[in-house]
Amino acid sequence: MKTLIVYTTKHGCTEKCVDKLKNGITGQVDVLNLKKSVKIDPNNYEIIIIGGSIHAGQIQKRVKRFCLNHLKLLTDKKIGLFICCMEDGETAANQFKEAFPEELMKHASAKGIFGGEFNFDKMNFIERLIVKKIAKIDKSVSNINEENITEFVKQITKLRDENNKK
């Protein structure tokens, strides 16, 4: 089974998580960064994983646009959805719920919230200023949740195994 991971990243956190996913999933796994102009046909994949990071409470527009532009196709595929964010608990759950169309949320077989990072080295002055003021953080910090990524990989593996039995 072929798996496609579709994502975008602003400061690299989502890309780190995608690398961990790719290394954990067996079989052919292709990766599409929506910021690059590479054309991949999602029709050619049995499993599609979509993710991005949350900034100012919203997932990147490229991820939303991909979901909306391919909604019909995605609801006919096995899909997984994930976000990277610095929030946890109910706030993170609400950000996850708002990140993707409701139809996709209901259809997704795998879901994950992977934590996030504030990487001051990759932020511009305004971004650092906002993080310092709102999050009260004045240096780079990471709270990527390895356990959640591992659990997500298990969900995808189970999906693949169930499909292979058919």
Largest sheet properties = 6 strands, mixed
Question: What is the CATH level 1 assignment?
Answer: Alpha Beta
What would CATH call the homologous superfamily? Flavodoxin domain
Count of DSSP-assigned helices: 7
Rg over CA atoms: 16 Å
User: What structural class do the secondary elements suggest?
Assistant: alpha/beta
- Would you identify the CATH architecture? 3-Layer(aba) Sandwich
Query: CATH topology, anyone?
Result: Rossmann fold
The separation of the N and C termini measures 12 Å
Q: Low-confidence segments, ≥5 residues, pLDDT <50? A: none
* Number of distinct beta strands: 8
Number of domains: 1
Which shape, going by the Cα principal axes?
A: globular
Task: Quote the beta fraction.
Answer: 15-25%
Helix content: 40-55%
